[in-house]
Design brief:
Layout (H helix, E strand, L loop, with lengths): L3 E7 L6 H13 L4 E6 L14 H12 L5 E3 L2 H4 L6 H12 L4 E7 H4 L8 H7 L1 E5 L6 H7 L2 H4 L2 E4 L8 H9 L10 H9 L33 H8 L2 E8 L5 H8 L4 E9 L6 E8 L5 H8 L3 E2 L2 E2 L1 E4 L8
Helix pairs in contact: 2-10, 4-6
The protein binds adenosine-5'-triphosphate (ATP) and magnesium ion.
Length: about 325
Amino acid sequence: MAQNIGIMGGTFDPIHLGHLAAAEEARARFHLDRVVFVPNGRPPHRPGYLPTPAENRYDMVVLATASNPAFEVSRTEIDRPGLSYSADTVEELRRRFGPDTRIYFIAGADALLEIPTWRDPERLAQSCEFVAVSRPGYDLTGLREALPPNLLSRMHMTEVPGVHISSSQLRRRAAAGEPLRYLTPLPVERYIAAHGLYSQYAPEPPGPGGLSAPAGRRGRDGRRNLNYEEEVRQSVAVTLYVGNLPWVVSEDELVQVFSRIGEVRDVRIITDTETGRSRGFGFIEVEGVELQDAIDAMSGTELRGRRLTVGPGRPRSQRY
Ligand code: ATP
Ligand code: MG
């Protein structure tokens, strides 16, 4: 069946509302049946920046997109060995969706300015069209002036509501203990806190008159205030995951599984749309329970006849 598919590639370190708003705007504007988010396996080298392991970035994209039925996530670049090239990704998705499919590659004006430096831009332009979205600080006029006609002729210029958020800004904020709320979906915010992501992020050196990140502020009474991550960690005492979930499982069932440990604050089911494998995460509030005891208490649990594997919140081994 002929479909319109959007592809939204990115490092997503972490995914934020700017990505989601741009994808949704493109979906509505170009009548896309779905938008496939493709986290990069190995993003291009940037001095002073080593990306978060791909599995963590992938999980966050799944968490952020789960509530939109038109959004899905592909592991293609993560699972493909070697460097990730968009031209290969688009061709692979074309094989999957068929020759009748119209494929729109969605990217911000900042990213598309670099397109002449990508591998095989002509091959890419032959297998898809582009949706160039505006981004605060990068307007579309600049693109029109910078890109060659053969690329521009395949490009739809699309103004999207300006969302002045970037992943680098979120990494800096997380490292400084500043809130991420309302900048990225709540499950992503919780995932970052539960996995301690970005706490080691070294902020870029402050410019003239710049402020360096506070390492835990002090309140008026002189006591050290909890930084943001500590606050979230205190209220989310244990994050566990269970693997090997049956394909169809509801959040209510997962709550029952996790409530053997304590009060369940939130559960997430992550299903890999390509392999059909699912894992569930439970954010559980318990006082004075060691993580290992919680895991032991869960071990042997069955759900719909399937024995679950249980582990601490970090879902998979890091691959980098
Ligand atoms: P970083 O600060 O690490 O570069 P980023 O916020 O630019 O992160 P990327 O993962 O590099 O995020 O971007 C993926 C894609 O999403 C790119 O095409 C980028 O142009 C686009 N994009 C990112 N943020 C926005 C935004 N706020 N508005 C519109 N497009 C965006
Ligand atoms: Mg970027």
